[in-house]
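User: I'll paste a sequence; please echo it back and then give the predicted structure.

Assistant: Echoing your sequence first, then the prediction.
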Amino acid sequence: MAPDDPSAATSGSPRPEIDVDALAGLLDGGYAGIRDLVRTDLVAHASVLEDAERLDTDAFRERVRDIVVELAATGQPGMGFPVEYGGGGDVGASVAAFETLAFGDLSVLVKSGVQFGLFGGAILHLGTERHHDAYLPDLVAGRLLGCFAMTETGHGSNVQALGTVARYDPEAGEFVVTTTGDAARKDYIGNAARHAELAVVFAQLEAGGESRGVHALLVPLRSGGRVLPGVEIEDDGLKMGLNGVDNGRIRFDGVRVPREALLNRFADVTPDGTYVSSIDNPDRRFFTMLGTLVQGRVCVGGAGVSVAKVALTIAVKYGVRRRQFETSAGSDEQLLLDYGLHQRRLLPLLARTYALHFAQDVVRGQLHDVFSGHEDDPRARRRLESRAAATKALGTWHATRTVQECREACGGAGYLAANRFAALKADSDVFTTFEGDNHVLLQLVAKGLLTDHAGEFEDLDQLGVVRYVTGLAVETVIEKASVHKLLERVRDLLPGGDAWDQEAGLLDSEYQLAMLRYREEHMLAGLARRLKRGIDQKRDPGAVFSQVQDHVIALAHAHAERLVLEAFVDACRALPDGGDKLALKPLCDLFALSTIEADRAWFMEHGRLTVQRSKAITREVNGLCRGIRPHAVDLVDAWRVPPEVLRAGDLLG
């Protein structure tokens, strides 16, 4: 029990204890050491949270840069790089470090992510030994700062249509990099406006008189702090948040780089201009290259969960300090978190945060297995890419929603810049659109579900998906979505077989899982039918896909929530009976039932909930909130967010 929880004095009966240290150890898992190292670094640099408002933009950017370089000296940002280049050789540890760094200033987080995740990750995964030897030691040590120049003013998510061109000149043995117009300028590029000396530039490669698609090259931007000839850099200026990151626009006017500047793990150009690649299909080659960069999505999703943890830590602790209104004449005013509505606002979000934590554990583990070679085959990579997209979307949307709800739950005090919410809201909002716009990512998820991650997966654009699905017997897709078997399973879990209005079974994890699986697979079958019907009516495949996009996103969202619940249930089942399980099972139930409750209209429309059972779920959610309320402070304390980075003195005293 937290010693500073005023609710302890007003509780009518002693509440069950939670071993906060044991729960924290469970949550930190095998990466407790690296997480504690990051927490120590966060405390040492906690003053940067005030610097964001105290310093002007230029000074704050320099402060953030200095912190990133200092962090490099600790070794934690480079944990994912090979040991021979100064790294730790542990991809999972690097993601865990990034997740924990998100407790602190998010400009530091993003600048570190650009440097070590995007810039460094591209060189590591797209380059070969010549690039690794030349750049990784200085990059990992923070001596060489760079940027990741993919996005263009006119091309964000549609990377295959980038306008920058890299044309090979065989006589000079050089690539000539050119920005073909304003739409092709590199834009919103972190580290570009001030600090990057070298850029990983994604461009349309032209060799032997033919366009070879998008490839990545290393292009110097500065030398001794001066922008090089042929390179034009413009500052993007103030942003909604993250103003410690120097985002900029880059244009290239015939900039020449040697042939060896091409990051050539998957394709190369010989001195005479011959294009060679081990992957013949250009679409598969493109998606293979991009697939190596999936770590960024995994990291951003985890950072979103950490942001939610910070917001909830503040709001829950405020809720057990702030009093409002007497419950009866002459009584003390009641603590906010003792009100049922306040519990309803915060505790389902707390449960969802725990659920997403365990889902993040799964995707981090998959990433580690793929990139360390334990399970590195094309199908495993496709599963990883889909899962990373799904959890990134849910995690970052959850962060945005949670910060807003927690800010409101703290009233006017939460609106003060002196407290953390203003910075959290401004700095984390962009998480929903960088490393992939969430709606685009969910379309990627649905694409994989429709094609069952077939070998043709990488080759299919939206029109290809329509043709692929309708080229199958639609019953094949529907059979995969075995809704009837699931329906029978759900009925078996309830007393009376078909008695859907019985309350028993609501806390059965099998029932909860079956409900979410039924929703997902019913949506999958329905989407396949809609696609086939459109094609049978001789309509344009593009128009067909456009008109079912609402269904596509709903399916992907349902799939993602099912994955999250499975991860939470598996984590609970893996625990021995005892304190940790007693603490987590009610949270798992609250996440599952509040998820069903939030989409009760769908379940009722499709005959899976009666009015009576829907009301029973609401009663159970309310009961779970009341039961979790005495544990709330302990549950947020188990996240071990350093008090120094909460920056909520006016709220928490």
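The domain at 438-632 is CATH 1.20.140.10 (Butyryl-CoA Dehydrogenase, subunit A; domain 3). The longest strand covers residues 210-220.
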